[in-house]
Amino acid sequence: MSQSPLSSAQTLQAEGLYLKLLDGVRALVADSAGPVVLAGIPSGGAWLAERLHRDLDLSGAPGVVSSSMHRDDFAQRGLSISAQTALPFEVNGAHVLLIDDVLYTGRTLRAVINELFDHGRPASVRLAVLVDRGGRELPIEAQFVAARVQMGTDESLSLARDAAGHLSFVVERAT
Predict the structure, then answer these.
(1) Is the dihedral of CA 71, 75, 81, 87 positive or negative?
(2) pLDDT for 114-135, tens place per residue?
């Protein structure tokens, strides 16, 4: 893939959107029927969950939920080298707030929810994302979205993090 600027994605400022996500997640946590645990989707969602957890001063530790074992394209992709599932909290009865960087087709979220349920039955599962780029193939919707953009099907958007923890977006176009 080659990097390519996009009109709508080009204007996205990850750090500014993070502040919107922080406010949205703060409201979701406050409106919850019980204590909320955060779980991020590797890699960008896990970075966001870790930072949100710290900035919201939540107890315990955030989790990571991998989609690797439940992907519908597992035969082609194989086991991902990204982070594997680590849930440092009891899933049964928990109010889980999944955090992801970019929501697109919904296929990753479907796999993540299947993986989460392999670890127990949560009381509720909600989703907050930094960017929703449309193009859903499955009926999955986030309860909070910091920004919405339209992109071509040959383009991808991902979150990057430098050594200092500063967030930015990478836009790539399939060649």
Answers:
(1) positive
(2) 999 999 999 999 999 999 999 9
Residue 68 has pLDDT above 90, yes or no: no
SS (H, E, C) the chain: CEECCCHHHHCCCHHHHHHHHHHHHHHHHHCCCCCEEEEECCCHHHHHHHHHHHHCCCCCCCEECCCHHHCCCHHHHCCCCCCCCECCCCCCCCEEEEEEEEECCCHHHHHHHHHHHHCCCCCEEEEEEEEECCCCCCCCCCCEEEEECCCCCCEEEEEEECCCCCEEEEEEECC
In the CATH hierarchy, which top-level class contains the domain 2-173?
alpha beta
Domain range summary for the chain, segments of one domain joined by +: 2-173
